[in-house]
Write a structure and sequence with these properties.
This protein is α/β, with parallel strands linked by helices. It has two domains: 236 residues, Vaccinia Virus protein VP39 (Rossmann fold, 3-Layer(aba) Sandwich), CATH 3.40.50; 63 residues, Alpha-Beta Plaits (2-Layer Sandwich), CATH 3.30.70. It is 35% helix and 24% strand. It has 13 helices and 15 strands. The strands form three sheets. Strands 5, 6, 7, 8, 9, 10, 11, 14 and 15 form a nine-stranded mixed beta sheet that branches. Strands 2-3-1-4 form a four-stranded antiparallel beta sheet. A hairpin with a 2-residue loop joins strand 2 and strand 3. The protein is globular, with a radius of gyration of 19 Å.
Length: 320
């Protein structure tokens, strides 16, 4: 099937059949109506560089409409494309960052506090890391890991522009976190994924590279990352697991495996805010019943970027 408005993208038949099972009918229609690349972008104002009111006034004086997002005080939708916004002086000065609302929601769900110890396990290219630093007001310990050295360079540049402070480490998160048990108050695991949620945005690479074997391979990595993140978390600490895909194997089934492995030691909590258009996570997949608490996780659906967010609390130490 060819996506309306982006005729060079043709959704793979196997993926389309899966989407028909996963997505509500109206959402499927939105997912198949890819947004052009010059669509209006959302932004996050950055208090580390300038007061929010000052940046907002600069944008509005330039003819940029910035409409507040009800569930996030520093997120705004605009009437401009990302390319246009990038040319604004406040962007190069770090007054705001162009970021999807779904991505903003993931770091917002973690809710780090100044003075805490926080780990971003898959940090590059830095949108969420810089958001965490802003929420912490650059106070406390923020460690940002990524396994790619080239992506880590991009991460450092984003942090520099936005005035965000973090210790950047090139390492495989699933190994590094396992070696630092119970060290962190909060952990973000924004895991590498098949990117199905970005196909809606006209991302032909995500569509062209999609295979069910890739989904399964990534699910194995995601489980390792999540388990290591849980190990690195202190008792009473909070972890957010997120992806930008619709695949249950990379979302709900990853949570189910963690609940099985850490039975009685973790719980899945509701998000602290409501995102219009989001729905509870699946509690059945492929004729398999999943733990009912998985419904506390949220699927963010088109017209927003497709995303999955789960908020997990560590409640007990392992029994000996």
């Amino acid at each position: 099937m060819t996506v309306r408005g982006m005729t060079h993208i043709s959704i793979q038949p196997q993926l389309l059949e899966r989407w028909k099972t996963i997505l509500p009918t109206d959402v499927l229609a939105a997912a198949l109506d890819a947004t052009p690349n010059d669509a209006a972008a959302s932004i996050r104002l950055n208090p580390l560089r300038a007061p929010l009111a000052q940046t907002l006034a600069e944008l509005q004086s330039s003819g940029i409409e910035a409409n507040p997002v009800a569930w996030c005080p520093h997120a705004f939708t605009t009437n401009m494309s990302a390319r246009t916004l990038q040319a604004h002086p406040a962007h190069s000065e770090g007054g705001f960052h162009i970021q999807s609302l779904s991505s903003i929601a993931a770091s917002l769900a973690l809710d780090p506090q100044p003075g805490e110890s926080v780990l971003d396990l898959c940090a590059a290219p830095g949108s969420k890391t810089s958001h965490l630093a802003a929420m912490m007001n650059n106070r406390g310990q923020l460690i940002a890991l990524d396994s790619s050295r080239s992506r880590l360079y991009r991460l450092r540049e984003v942090l520099r522009i936005l005035g965000a402070t973090a210790e950047c480490i090139c390492a495989h998160g699933e190994r590094w976190a396992r070696g630092h048990p119970t060290m962190f108050d909060r952990v973000l695991v924004d895991a590498p994924c098949s990117g199905e949620g970005r196909i809606h945005l006209g991302d032909s690479a995500a569509n062209d590279g999609w295979t069910i074997s890739k989904v399964r391979r990534l699910a194995s990595l995601q489980k390792s990352l999540l388990h290591s993140g849980i190990d690195a978390l202190r008792i009473g600490g909070t972890l957010v697991y997120s992806t930008c895909t619709f695949a249950p194997e990379e979302n709900e089934l990853v949570l189910q495996r963690a609940l099985d492995r850490y039975e009685g030691r973790i719980e899945i909590l509701p998000l602290q805010f409501d995102i219009p258009g989001s729905i509870p996570a699946l509690t059945t997949w492929s004729n398999r019943a999943l733990h009912p608490s998985i419904a506390n996780a949220r699927r963010i659906l088109p017209p927003l970027e497709g995303f999955f967010i789960a908020r997990i609390r560590k409640i007990n130490a392992p029994t000996t």
